C-alpha cells in the first residue's frame, strides 16, 4: 500500500534551516588562564555602578546577595585590588561604588563583546549563505 501520509513537520522544508536560527557566542575574560569575568558579573558591576548599592546590583543579575559578595571578593583577590568600594550606612543607608579599574574592565568587556557580536552576526550570515549556495549547487548537479 502506498504511503499517503502527509510529511511531518520535521520533513517539511527538508534541507532548510528555520529562519529564526542564529549564532551566539558567550564571552568571558580570563586572568592568567582562569575564568575571571563574564556577562553576569559585568551586569552585577554595572548594576552597582547605576544604583550605588550591591543589593540592587544583585537584583539585576538575579543572584543572591551572598553569591554577589563572594564573586566580588573572588575577582578582587584574583586582581589583588578592589573593584567595589563600600561605605556603611547609618540613617541614609550604605553605598557602593566601582573603582576606576572596575569601570575600565566593564568598558573593555562591553567594547570587546560588542565587536565580537557584530563579527558573529556577519560570520553566521556568511555561513548561512555558504550553506544555501552549497544546497543550490548540489541540486543543479
Can you walk me through this structure?
This protein is 55% helix and 11% strand. It contains 4 helices and 4 strands; from the N terminus they run E-E-H-H-H-E-E-H. The model has no long low-confidence stretch (mean pLDDT 86). The strands form 2 sheets. It has a two-stranded antiparallel ribbon with strand order 1-2. A two-stranded antiparallel sheet has the order 3-4. It has 141 residues and is mainly alpha-helical. The chain starts with 28 loop residues before the first strand and ends with a helix.
Please describe the topology of this protein.
Layout: E1 29-31, E2 34-37, H1 39-51, H2 54-61, H3 65-79, E3 84-87, E4 95-98, H4 100-140
Antiparallel strand pairs: 1-2, 3-4
Helix pairs in contact: 1-2, 1-4
Computed over alpha carbons, the radius of gyration is: 24 Å
Order of helices and strands: EEHHHEEH
Structural class: mainly alpha
As a percent range, the share of strand residues is 5-15%
What distance separates the N and C termini? Answer: 32 Å
Based on DSSP secondary structure assignment, what is the total number of beta strands? 4
Q: Looking across the biggest beta sheet, what order are the strands in?
A: 1-2
Overall mean pLDDT stands at: 86
The unreliable regions are none
What share of residues is helical?
Answer: 40-55%
- Shape assignment: elongated
Major β-sheet, in short?
Answer: 2 strands, antiparallel
What count of helical segments does DSSP give? Answer: 4
